[in-house]
Amino acid sequence: MTILLIVAHPKKESFSFAMAERILKQAYEKKHNIDIIDLYRDKNQQPFFSFNNANNVPITKEMKYYQDKIKNSDRLIFIFPYWWGGMPSILKNFIEWNLSKGFAFKYVNSKPVGLLSNKEVSVYTTTGAPSFIYKITGANSRIKKTFKQQIINFCGMKLISFNIYGGLDKSNINTEKILEKIVL
Protein backbone atom coordinates (compact mmCIF):
# COMPACT_ATOMS: atom_id res chain seq x y z
CA MET A 1 0.00 0.00 0.00
CA THR A 2 1.16 3.51 -0.78
CA ILE A 3 0.12 6.16 1.74
CA LEU A 4 0.24 9.94 1.50
CA LEU A 5 0.24 11.56 4.93
CA ILE A 6 -0.77 15.24 4.86
CA VAL A 7 -0.13 17.16 8.08
CA ALA A 8 -1.41 20.70 8.63
CA HIS A 9 -0.02 22.02 11.91
CA PRO A 10 2.46 24.88 12.35
CA LYS A 11 4.21 23.35 15.38
CA LYS A 12 6.43 20.29 14.96
CA GLU A 13 6.01 19.60 18.70
CA SER A 14 2.21 19.30 18.31
CA PHE A 15 0.05 16.27 18.95
CA SER A 16 -0.73 16.29 15.21
CA PHE A 17 2.92 15.42 14.55
CA ALA A 18 2.89 12.83 17.34
CA MET A 19 -0.01 11.14 15.52
CA ALA A 20 1.89 11.42 12.24
CA GLU A 21 4.96 9.78 13.81
CA ARG A 22 2.78 6.91 15.10
CA ILE A 23 1.33 6.37 11.63
CA LEU A 24 4.77 6.57 10.00
CA LYS A 25 6.13 3.96 12.40
CA GLN A 26 3.22 1.59 11.74
CA ALA A 27 3.55 2.06 7.98
CA TYR A 28 7.26 1.21 8.09
CA GLU A 29 6.57 -1.85 10.26
CA LYS A 30 3.95 -3.05 7.76
CA LYS A 31 6.33 -2.35 4.85
CA HIS A 32 3.96 0.20 3.29
CA ASN A 33 5.32 2.99 1.13
CA ILE A 34 4.57 6.27 2.89
CA ASP A 35 5.26 9.86 2.06
CA ILE A 36 4.58 12.84 4.31
CA ILE A 37 3.67 16.36 3.30
CA ASP A 38 4.14 18.96 6.02
CA LEU A 39 2.03 21.77 4.59
CA TYR A 40 3.72 24.44 6.70
CA ARG A 41 7.25 23.48 5.69
CA ASP A 42 7.03 21.78 2.30
CA LYS A 43 9.28 23.26 -0.38
CA ASN A 44 6.37 23.18 -2.85
CA GLN A 45 4.04 25.39 -0.82
CA GLN A 46 1.29 26.99 -2.82
CA PRO A 47 0.18 30.62 -2.57
CA PHE A 48 -3.29 31.53 -1.44
CA PHE A 49 -5.72 30.09 -4.00
CA SER A 50 -7.04 32.76 -6.32
CA PHE A 51 -8.58 32.36 -9.73
CA ASN A 52 -10.48 34.24 -12.40
CA ASN A 53 -12.18 31.17 -13.81
CA ALA A 54 -12.69 28.13 -11.54
CA ASN A 55 -13.22 25.92 -14.58
CA ASN A 56 -9.89 26.84 -16.11
CA VAL A 57 -7.20 26.91 -13.42
CA PRO A 58 -3.79 26.51 -15.08
CA ILE A 59 -1.75 23.61 -13.71
CA THR A 60 1.30 24.85 -11.85
CA LYS A 61 4.43 22.83 -11.15
CA GLU A 62 3.32 22.65 -7.49
CA MET A 63 -0.09 21.26 -8.50
CA LYS A 64 1.59 18.66 -10.69
CA TYR A 65 3.90 17.71 -7.82
CA TYR A 66 1.06 17.25 -5.31
CA GLN A 67 -1.37 15.70 -7.78
CA ASP A 68 1.26 13.12 -8.75
CA LYS A 69 1.65 12.24 -5.06
CA ILE A 70 -2.13 11.92 -4.70
CA LYS A 71 -2.44 9.91 -7.93
CA ASN A 72 0.27 7.46 -6.84
CA SER A 73 -1.26 6.85 -3.40
CA ASP A 74 -3.77 4.25 -2.31
CA ARG A 75 -4.68 6.06 0.89
CA LEU A 76 -4.63 9.70 1.91
CA ILE A 77 -4.36 10.47 5.62
CA PHE A 78 -5.15 14.00 6.77
CA ILE A 79 -3.96 15.18 10.21
CA PHE A 80 -4.87 18.62 11.46
CA PRO A 81 -6.16 20.62 14.44
CA TYR A 82 -9.87 21.47 14.41
CA TRP A 83 -9.78 25.28 14.53
CA TRP A 84 -12.70 27.70 14.43
CA GLY A 85 -15.12 25.04 13.26
CA GLY A 86 -12.97 23.68 10.47
CA MET A 87 -9.61 22.74 9.10
CA PRO A 88 -6.65 25.15 9.07
CA SER A 89 -6.68 27.45 6.05
CA ILE A 90 -3.43 25.96 4.74
CA LEU A 91 -5.18 22.57 4.36
CA LYS A 92 -8.22 24.17 2.73
CA ASN A 93 -5.83 25.90 0.33
CA PHE A 94 -4.13 22.56 -0.45
CA ILE A 95 -7.53 21.00 -1.22
CA GLU A 96 -8.66 23.94 -3.37
CA TRP A 97 -5.50 23.85 -5.46
CA ASN A 98 -4.99 20.12 -5.84
CA LEU A 99 -8.38 18.42 -5.82
CA SER A 100 -9.20 20.37 -8.94
CA LYS A 101 -11.67 19.88 -11.76
CA GLY A 102 -10.29 17.44 -14.31
CA PHE A 103 -8.07 15.77 -11.72
CA ALA A 104 -10.32 14.96 -8.74
CA PHE A 105 -13.76 15.41 -10.34
CA LYS A 106 -15.57 16.33 -13.53
CA TYR A 107 -19.11 17.28 -14.42
CA VAL A 108 -21.29 15.00 -16.52
CA ASN A 109 -24.72 16.40 -17.41
CA SER A 110 -24.20 19.08 -14.74
CA LYS A 111 -23.57 16.45 -12.04
CA PRO A 112 -20.20 15.97 -10.33
CA VAL A 113 -18.41 12.68 -10.90
CA GLY A 114 -15.46 11.81 -8.66
CA LEU A 115 -12.28 10.74 -10.41
CA LEU A 116 -10.37 9.41 -7.39
CA SER A 117 -12.49 6.30 -6.80
CA ASN A 118 -9.46 4.13 -6.09
CA LYS A 119 -8.44 6.22 -3.04
CA GLU A 120 -9.16 5.60 0.63
CA VAL A 121 -9.11 8.41 3.20
CA SER A 122 -8.52 8.57 6.95
CA VAL A 123 -8.81 11.77 8.97
CA TYR A 124 -7.30 12.54 12.39
CA THR A 125 -8.12 15.85 14.03
CA THR A 126 -7.74 17.33 17.49
CA THR A 127 -9.56 19.95 19.54
CA GLY A 128 -8.58 21.99 22.55
CA ALA A 129 -12.01 21.91 24.17
CA PRO A 130 -13.38 18.72 25.70
CA SER A 131 -15.00 16.31 23.23
CA PHE A 132 -18.44 16.60 24.82
CA ILE A 133 -18.60 20.32 23.91
CA TYR A 134 -18.17 19.48 20.25
CA LYS A 135 -20.71 16.65 20.48
CA ILE A 136 -23.49 18.68 22.11
CA THR A 137 -23.01 21.63 19.76
CA GLY A 138 -22.95 19.38 16.70
CA ALA A 139 -19.48 20.58 15.69
CA ASN A 140 -18.08 17.04 15.42
CA SER A 141 -20.81 15.89 13.07
CA ARG A 142 -20.54 19.09 11.00
CA ILE A 143 -16.84 18.73 10.23
CA LYS A 144 -17.17 15.01 9.54
CA LYS A 145 -20.18 15.54 7.27
CA THR A 146 -18.50 18.41 5.41
CA PHE A 147 -15.23 16.52 4.92
CA LYS A 148 -17.00 13.30 3.92
CA GLN A 149 -19.63 14.73 1.58
CA GLN A 150 -17.96 17.84 0.16
CA ILE A 151 -14.43 16.51 -0.29
CA ILE A 152 -14.13 12.73 -0.02
CA ASN A 153 -17.38 11.59 -1.66
CA PHE A 154 -17.35 14.51 -4.12
CA CYS A 155 -13.99 13.30 -5.45
CA GLY A 156 -15.13 9.65 -5.49
CA MET A 157 -12.93 8.55 -2.60
CA LYS A 158 -13.91 6.25 0.27
CA LEU A 159 -13.77 7.30 3.93
CA ILE A 160 -12.09 4.61 6.06
CA SER A 161 -12.04 6.45 9.40
CA PHE A 162 -12.73 9.90 10.84
CA ASN A 163 -11.21 10.47 14.27
CA ILE A 164 -11.68 13.51 16.51
CA TYR A 165 -9.72 13.69 19.77
CA GLY A 166 -10.78 16.43 22.19
CA GLY A 167 -9.51 18.17 25.27
CA LEU A 168 -5.88 18.28 24.20
CA ASP A 169 -5.28 21.68 25.81
CA LYS A 170 -5.70 20.09 29.24
CA SER A 171 -2.50 19.02 30.94
CA ASN A 172 -4.08 15.87 32.39
CA ILE A 173 -5.06 14.36 29.05
CA ASN A 174 -3.44 11.00 28.48
CA THR A 175 -2.06 11.41 24.99
CA GLU A 176 -0.36 8.01 25.11
CA LYS A 177 -3.78 6.33 25.36
CA ILE A 178 -4.97 8.30 22.36
CA LEU A 179 -1.89 7.36 20.37
CA GLU A 180 -2.50 3.69 21.16
CA LYS A 181 -5.93 4.00 19.48
CA ILE A 182 -4.33 5.06 16.22
CA VAL A 183 -4.01 1.93 14.16
CA LEU A 184 -3.12 2.03 10.48
Keywords:
35% helix, 6 helices, 5-stranded parallel β-sheet, alpha/beta
Compact description:
With 184 residues, this protein is α/β, with parallel strands linked by helices.
Structural account:
By secondary structure, the protein is of the alpha/beta class. Helix content is 35%, strand content 23%. Strands 2-1-3-6-7 form a five-stranded parallel beta sheet, sandwiched between helices. The longest helix has 15 residues, at 15-29. The radius of gyration is 17 Å and the shape is globular. The model has no long low-confidence stretch (mean pLDDT 92).
Report helical residue fraction.
25-40%
Strand order of the largest sheet: 2-1-3-6-7
Give the strand tally. Answer: 7
Span between termini: 11 Å
Low-confidence stretches: none
Number of helical regions: 6
Major sheet: size, sense and barrel closure?
A: 5 strands, parallel
Please state the structural category. alpha/beta
Mean pLDDT reading: 92
Shape: globular
Portion in strands: 15-25%
- Reading the helices and strands in chain order gives EHEHEHEEEHHEH
Rg from C-alpha positions?
A: 17 Å
What is this structure's SSE topology?
Layout: E1 2-7, H1 15-29, E2 33-38, H2 61-71, E3 75-81, H3 89-98, E4 105-108, E5 111-114, E6 120-126, H4 131-137, H5 139-153, E7 158-165, H6 175-181
Parallel strand pairs: 1-2, 1-3, 3-6, 6-7
Antiparallel strand pairs: 4-5
